[in-house]
Amino acid sequence: MATSPLPEKAEQILRAAVPEFLAHGYARTSMDRVAKVAGVSKQTLYSHFSDKDGLFTALVERIAIEEFQLVWAKPLQGEPETVLRDLARRILTEHIGDTDYLRFCRLIFGESEVRPDLAQIFLKNLVQPAVNVVSDYFKTRPDLNSSDPEATARIFVGSLIHWLMVQEALYGKEVMPMDPERIVESLITLIVPRA
Q1: What torsion do the CA atoms of 44, 46, 123, 129 make, to the nearest 10 degrees?
Q2: How far apart are CA 162 and CA 104, in angstroms?
Q3: Most CB atoms closer than 10 Å: which of 10, 48, 121, 161?
Q4: What is the residue-wise DSSP string for 124-176?
Q5: What is the pTM of this model?
Q6: What is the C-alpha to C-alpha distance for residues 95 and 67, in angstroms, rounded to an integer?
Q7: Region 18-45 average pLDDT
Q8: Within a 10 A sphere around the Cβ of 153, how many other Cβ atoms?
Q9: What's the CATH number of domain 60-191, 2.40.50, 1.10.287, 1.10.357, 3.30.420?
């Protein structure tokens, strides 16, 4: 899944919009300010993005696609224990400490009450393809004895997302800390049959 190239000015606007939305939230971000920070006229901004909803929607889609490519660019090949451990660690380590990504997730959560389509865009471009990749891998591995590869893939991906959301996005590491390696090893024990 590749991001479609946008005109240079549109890319410039998207890059400038990220810190504005993160700093001010959706409601308090102004298109005037985005245009100023991007170094473009309001006319140029509106020629690429019809309104703030259009800009934010493009931003949600872009970030979801970039996050997917960041973690999932490496094909899943090899023995399940090694593949799943490597994948789980990539998912967790790419996002632990990425404060902008976590802030962006919080922003999407906050806006999803009014704009559920934004959360759906995020899911369609990040979570759903991730589940599909893992499910497809499970289907190629009869040694895993998975009666439902898609459900097992959702358990695997969902457990990692849950850990990230609870521990990092919701500041749960102070309330209910858990080392990420415990999650990784427990998932592998659940999914990969022991000889």
Answers
A1: -40
A2: 16
A3: 121
A4: IIIIHHHHHHHHHHHHT-GGG--S-HHHHHHHHHHHHHHHHIIIIIT-TTTTS
A5: 0.84
A6: 9
A7: 94
A8: 22
A9: 1.10.357
